[in-house]
Amino acid sequence: MSRYWSKVVHGLTPYVPGEQPKLPDLVKLNTNENPYGPSPRVIEALRAEAADSLRLYPDPASERLREAIAAFHGVEASQVFVGNGSDEVLAHAFLALLKHDAPILFPDITYSFYPVYCGLYGIEYQEIPLTESFEIRVDDYFVANGGIIFPNPNAPTARLLALGEIERLLAKNTESVVVVDEAYIDFGGESAVGLVNKYPQLLVVHTLSKSHSLAGLRVGYAIGQADLIQALVRVKDSFNSYPLDRFAQAGAIASMQDREYFDQTRHKVMATREKLVADLDALGFEVLPSAANFVFARHPQHDGAELAQALRERSIIVRHFRKPARIAPFLRITVGTDEQCQALVTALRELLA
Questions:
Q1: Which of 9, 64, 105, 257 has the CB geometry, 3.0–4.6 Å to 5, for a possible disulfide?
Q2: Contact 221, 206 (CB under 8 A)
Q3: What CATH code is carried by the domain that includes residue 210?
Q4: 99 and 222 co-located in one domain
């Protein structure tokens, strides 16, 4: 710690991202990256963008990208906000829409960036416990609040909240914003985007890092009614008017326009996930129902941290969370290629034997 730090910095507990180790022959199943590369159209668009125009600033409003996203989802471009990854979009949403006098609500087991944003912006929050089977129970959120946010599917549990339950929450919670963080929705769930025009308090956040294979470009977006979008724009333009560079915008547009490739790769991931779940089940693991590109699993006779370390010694890395205590036995395992998942299952079979 430094005496030159502000009081805000002294009080922060930063988010810890999944590690990016450089191990030989690594099977990397810890950060939920897509095992397949982006659309070939993306590569072409990036090559075309490497031109003299890089001396110019990018479009601060990302108009062409917002139009491409709007066309993909069947909404208006005025309903779309884009940012430098969904983490930045979420950060702006916390400040623009969730900072009120009453505490905001989110699950006790969820994306660990949420309490970090609250600490950064001085937002009070209340954690709502998941059920014993790690599900979000909508009735628990029918209390006064300054806003509600949750991932769907939830992370790291991978469990999906049915769209009907989300609508039931929206019908009851009309006085504050509800943010549905859909980073993984394309791997098995029904998006809440279709509810945006009906509920003015709904903001749906997406990322191109997972189902569009663009974690390296850092592009995220939100969809909501124009009133919510304008609040995000006001915060963005008070922070960084140019969050997306020319490469990010060009690559993201190409990806949004190649729906065939998007569907092809996400269905490959979903098929591999089903086989992985079956293989883990055969090894005696309890695997939570997953609608994401990862699974959350524990073995009744083995410690999660010890299994993670034993896999690491074999150059296979998965994600293990020590806190909260009730998820410590679990491993969060990214769905990789068929070959990567088979390497994981083979290693686990040997370790358990």
A1: 9
A2: yes
A3: 3.40.640.10
A4: yes
Which residues span the domain enclosing 343?
A: 7-37+262-352
- Taking the C-alpha atoms of residue 48 and residue 250, their distance in angstroms, rounded to an integer, is 9
Asked if residues 90 and 117 have their Cβ atoms less than 8 Å apart, the reply is yes
Same domain, 142 and 214: yes
**pTM metric for this prediction:** 0.96
Do residues 14 and 162 share a domain? no
Residue that terminates a domain, selected from 236, 259, 282: 259
Distance CA 38, CA 319 (A): 24
Do 76 and 17 share a domain, yes or no? Answer: no
Q: Does the bond joining 324 to the residue before it have cis omega, within 30 degrees of 0? A: yes
In this structure, the answer to whether residues 277 and 246 fall within a common structural domain is: no
Tokens of 77: 């471009």
Nearest by Cα to 219 from 231, 233, 201, 206? 206
Flag whether 205 is in a domain.
yes
Identify the DSSP state of 79. Answer: G
Beta bridge partners of 128: 107
Instruction: Give the separation between CA 316 and CA 179, rounded to whole angstroms.
Output: 34
Q: Are 103 and 249 part of one and the same domain? A: yes
Query: What is the C-alpha to C-alpha distance for residues 153 and 242, in angstroms, rounded to an integer?
Result: 30
Same domain? For 116 and 194 the reply is yes
DSSP string, 96-148: HHS-SSSPEEEESSS-THHHHHHHHHT--EEEEPP-TTS---GGGG-S--S-E
Domain count, the chain: 2
Walk along the chain (353 residues) in steps of 10 and give the mean pLDDT of each run: 86 80 84 97 98 96 98 98 98 98 97 95 97 98 98 97 98 98 98 98 98 98 98 97 97 98 98 98 98 98 95 95 92 97 97 91
Alpha carbon distance 93, 95 (integer Å): 5
